[in-house]
Automatic annotation (TrEMBL):
<dbReference type="InterPro" id="IPR012349">
    <property type="entry name" value="Split_barrel_FMN-bd"/>
</dbReference>
<dbReference type="Pfam" id="PF12900">
    <property type="entry name" value="Pyridox_ox_2"/>
</dbReference>
<dbReference type="InterPro" id="IPR024747">
    <property type="entry name" value="Pyridox_Oxase-rel"/>
</dbReference>
<protein>
    <recommendedName>
        <fullName>Pyridoxamine 5'-phosphate oxidase family protein</fullName>
    </recommendedName>
</protein>
């Protein structure tokens, strides 16, 4: 994901808690709430870490970010979603921007933007908030699809869990730039060093073979296909 949206919360600072205080690689941490919003806006896939029946599970899942809330959804039978409201969770969002190739293997690294959110999610039961949260999720991954595709039926809504997690306790970390060993003794080794950038793009649309041949894709999808993710 390479095109962060403009921050909806300029000038806000992330509160530092015992959990969010950066300890290692502190210089990559940021207290800028706008940086957090940009990392969240640039993606739609997170990893939800939760202890289920005494065992840690880290579950990849889609999310929607709306102001101070992160929404996740899944089947009402999803074990990680059932366990989450009673337990603390840790959610991460990660974007890899490049490989940092140093003179020494020790100094190799990754250019990245990442966010971590700690908290206890609440199940969303209010029908209006549930629809709004599902819309947020859908639009974050596939902008334009909420208005284009059929909306969830009552039965489908009943089969779907939606959880809301506050962004009150969140951190963001960003690494940019070249390797760190350009001014150390290894600079004299005569080895190439630098960054191999990673860019993500959407491909061309692949129509469902079951479609009638004359059914054209909607404009919001043709505009997005083969563009930077
Ligand atoms: C793609 C990628 C690859 C990485 N590879 C490595 C690696 O190989 N080795 C390595 O040591 N580190 C790596 N990191 C950094 C790693 O994520 C941690 O930030 C770092 O290791 C410090 O971890 P810690 O357990 O000491 O956390 P601490 O510094 O103790 O964490 C304290 C608090 O800081 C915040 N925090 C920590 N890490 C992050 C983060 N990445 N994003 C947002 N908030 C954070 C959290 O709120 C956390 O509770 C990588 C990060 C990314 C995104």
């Amino acid at each position: 994901m390479t095109s962060p949206a403009p921050s909806p919360s300029p000038g806000r600072t992330l509160p530092e808690t015992a959990r969010t205080r950066h300890r290692r690689l502190r210089e990559q941490g940021s207290l800028d709430r706008g940086a957090l919003d940009a990392v969240l806006a640039a993606g739609f896939l997170c990893h939800l870490g939760v202890v289920v029946d005494g065992t840690p599970m880290v579950v990849p899942t889609v999310y929607g970010a709306d102001g101070d809330t992160l929404y996740f959804h899944g089947s009402v039978a999803s074990r990680s979603l059932i366990a989450s409201p009673g337990a603390g969770v840790c959610v991460t969002v990660t974007h890899v921007d490049g490989l940092v190739l140093a003179r020494s293997v020790f100094e190799h690294g990754v250019n990245y933007r990442s966010a971590m959110v700690h908290g206890t999610p609440r199940p969303v039961t209010d029908p209006e908030e549930k629809l709004a949260g599902l819309r947020c999720l859908t639009e974050q991954a596939a902008p334009g699809q909420w208005d284009y595709a059929r909306r969830p039926s009552r039965k489908e809504l009943a089969a779907t869990s939606l959880l809301a997690l506050s962004l009150d306790e969140a951190s963001v970390k960003i690494r940019t730039g070249p390797p760190d060993d350009g001014d150390g003794p290894d600079a004299a080794l005569g080895l190439w060093a630098g960054v191999l950038p990673l860019h993500t793009t959407w491909g061309a649309l692949e129509p469902d073979p079951a479609l009638p041949a004359d059914l054209a894709p909607p404009a919001h999808l043709t505009a997005r296909a083969a563009s930077p993710a």
